Amino acid sequence: MLLVLAACGNDSSSGDGDGSDKEDKTIEIGLNNWAENVAVSNMWKIILEDEGYSVKLNMTEKGPLYQALESDDLDLALEVWLPHTDEAFYEDYKEDVDFHKDQPWFNGTTLGLAVPSYVDVNSIEELNDNKDLFEDGKIYGIDPGSSLMGLTDEALDEYGLDYTTASSSGPAMTTQLGESIRKEEPILVTLWKPHWVFAEYELKFLEDPKNVYGDEENIIWMSRQGFTDDFPEVTEYINTWEMDDQQLGSLMNMVKEADEPAEGAQKWVDENEELINEWLGK
Question: ABC-type glycine betaine transport system substrate-binding domain: which residues (predicted)?
Fold first, then answer.
């Protein structure tokens, strides 16, 4: 899916930033096709539109997303994993993009290689000896160029794995995962938590003794430079935002079960008015 950028540039910098004429201030949110990113981006679109803002969601991949924030073609993006996963992007763009590192909205992430719990493999170090279990050494991955796939390439080198990666997308990976589990077949995937699959399937991360995938991290948000001046009220909302595993999991499940992401996000917003009012300072 392509990132749609307005030829005339972003109009969100117009106005005085005091919350007046909100309907003339379009906020453009960039997102990846990852389950939690789709869920929270649709959630914030609904919340901000309820507050009088106009919001557009622009689907893209990681590299173009950072480039669009740097060039002011996007206003914000809601998912940056630090200090490890997105470190390379952070180092490349920290002078040109505002990273809101002091306001994580989710604490304690996990990512790595995962298998169904019935698979008798527990560590990445055991993979070469069990290559025949996984389609002769196939790892189902996500978007090419994503941080997780970059770390998986590092894992192949660090552990000397005789495996290949099949990059596709988050939804394609979870579809293949579900099909394999229904057949009770072994499958090896790149995965991260929080993710709705952990509520639906019995899965386990493989031990990573070399710590290639790093320790637990936090998720923060980022914005184009000048966004906080143009939208101080929205900045305060998002800085107050925080979700735990149960809250995010329930949102992701509603989005997954709905015909459209916006439909599931709207249902969750309707059922969590009290929590959202806390974020909005009401």
Answer: 25-271
H/E stretch holding 221 reads strand 217-224
As given in the structure block, the two tokens for residue 162 are 């005789």
In a domain, 45, yes or no: yes
Q: 33: domain range?
A: 22-107+216-279
Sign of CA dihedral 183, 184, 185, 191: positive
Instruction: Give yes or no: residues 90 and 175 share one domain.
Output: no
**Residue 262: inside a domain:** yes
Class of residue 200 by CB neighbours under 10 A (exposed 0-12, middle 13-18, buried 19+): middle
Beta bridge partners of 82: 218
147 domain residue, yes or no: yes
26 and 90 both lie in a single domain: yes
Give 134-169 pLDDT, tens digit per residue. 998 999 999 888 889 999 999 999 999 999 999 988
CATH number of the domain within which 158 lies: 3.40.190.100
CA-based Rg of the chain, rounded to a whole angstrom?
A: 20
Q: Can you read off the two tokens belonging to residue 252?
A: 């992701």
Q: Is 18 exposed, middle or buried (0-12, 13-18, 19+ CB in 10 A)?
A: exposed
Residues 45-90 pLDDT 10s: 999 999 999 999 999 988 999 999 999 999 999 999 999 889 999 9
